[in-house]
Design a protein that fits this description.
It is built from 6 helices and 11 strands. It is an alpha/beta fold.
């Protein structure tokens, strides 16, 4: 820049350029609007970035009439984004924190969605729901910085596995630490064969045949698909929860992973 006589004004730039580099691909972007895409007038108390929440909901295969659960809803950002896009759905948000639920309630009122989303004060490892009763689970797993998990992530996944119906979808935002723990096989994994099938104790193969990918997956580039596959190859199943999509996302100061799981068979929990 110096050789062209250009001077960067970092406080009030005329143009912002975003560049993300990885070993597989590079992305260059220029903001079109001054207002950030994540800005939402209907969110009074901010939690998870709204664009990330929308991205998670968009890959969850939500359809009218479904039961969608966020068992660690915080301020309710994920459910708000989902309910704005898919209104004819039964949404439930749960959290163990009273202050988080109060913030979520304020956001629901501001968005005019108080009658669309039910809030419950319960623990994620003791959900008051029948087994295999939920169609879709979407949640931001606490990273352990602002809020501690209190329980091992395996206990959380086991309870999510219990309440999810066979063929249902789980979309989780995982920290790099969570990703490493699950990748290293600390979960209850059942190996998949070359056809993407589980083989149970009786030698019966139980295969997962995912639906046509929706949302983000339809428009990703070949390089991102390659990154997605590499990410999936490193992540084993957790019991009956089989990873089918993975996206690495930036949260500003840190990176995270959006993981999509499908439940391949009854877990018997």
């Amino acid at each position: 820049m110096k050789q062209f006589g250009w001077k960067a004004d970092l406080r009030n730039p005329n143009l912002e350029i975003f560049i993300h580099l990885s070993d597989i691909y590079s992305v260059v972007g220029i903001p079109v609007f001054r207002v950030p895409l994540a800005s939402r007038a209907y969110i009074r108390t901010t939690g998870l970035r709204s664009t990330i929440a929308w991205a998670m909901a968009s890959v969850a295969e939500i359809e009218a009439g479904m039961f969608v659960l966020d068992p660690m809803c915080g301020f309710g950002t994920i459910l708000l984004e989902a309910a704005k896009e898919w209104p004819d759905v039964y949404y439930v948000g749960a959290d163990v924190s009273t202050s988080q639920l109060l913030g979520a309630s304020d956001n629901l009122k501001a968005a005019g969605l108080k009658d669309k989303i039910e809030l419950l004060k319960v623990s994620v490892i003791e959900l008051p729901l029948p087994s295999e009763s939920v169609d879709v689970i979407i949640s931001d797993i606490p990273f352990g910085k602002k809020f501690k998990l209190g329980k091992d992530i395996r206990s959380i996944l086991q309870e999510l596995e219990r309440v999810l119906r066979v063929g249902g979808t789980v979309v989780l935002l995982l920290s790099e630490a969570h990703h490493r723990r699950l990748k290293d096989g600390e979960g209850r994994s059942i190996p998949l064969n070359s056809k993407g099938c589980h083989t149970d104790e009786l030698g019966v193969a139980k295969c997962l045949i995912p639906k046509e990918k929706t949302g983000i997956a339809k428009t990703v580039s070949p390089s991102l698909e390659s990154s997605n596959q590499e990410c999936l190859d490193k992540m084993p199943p957790f019991g009956s929860l089989v990873p089918v999509e993975c996206y690495k996302v930036s949260l500003g100061k840190t990176d995270a992973f959006i993981y999509k799981y499908k439940k391949s068979h009854s877990s018997g929990l």
